[in-house]
Design brief:
Length: 162
């Protein structure tokens, strides 16, 4: 038997609405892929944010260390500047001291004293015949009465009380 035309369609009112097969597996798979993609993007953005935060943290730490180091160098520089100025002052004072020592040696020499006494003060060298010899080993001074008065007042008060 030979079949020439085979028709598989229905004519008339017997036709039913065609059943559409919902492809839920594909939709579920698509939703799952979308969810994974979103999670991956969120994770990647979190990692990028974390890397940015750590980079900023390192930059801030380096900046703080740089400021600290610079401030320490500034303090050291100021101390060295003060030290050099003190050394310069010490050198000036030492040179002044040396100049004063030289002046003292010049003035305290016997000839300098003799010249100053003769020329400026009009003093003359004494003769042995005009020289007076005084013995200062004795107590040639009058005793002050104030000490005795104080002692006597104290002794009087002491006698009254005791």
């Amino acid at each position: 038997m030979i079949v020439e035309k085979q028709k598989n369609y229905i004519n008339g009112s017997n036709a039913l609405m065609p059943e559409l097969k919902k492809d839920t597996q594909k939709k579920d798979k698509y939703k799952k892929l979308q969810r994974e993609k979103r999670e991956r993007e969120i994770r990647i953005s979190k990692e990028k944010n974390q890397k940015k935060k750590s980079a900023i943290r390192y930059i801030l730490i380096l900046f703080a260390l740089g400021i600290l180091l610079t401030s320490r160098y500034a303090i050291i520089f100021n101390i060295q500047k003060d030290l050099s100025s003190v050394k310069n002052q010490i050198q000036k004072v030492d040179s002044e001291n040396e100049a004063l020592k030289i002046d003292i040696l010049k003035v305290s020499s016997y000839e300098s004293v003799k010249n100053t006494a003769e020329k400026q003060l009009n003093m003359k060298e004494p003769d042995n015949s005009k020289a007076l010899i005084i013995d200062l080993s004795k107590n040639n001074f009058k005793e002050s009465n104030k000490d005795k008065e104080k002692l006597s007042k104290f002794e009087k008060l002491k006698d009254i009380l005791f």
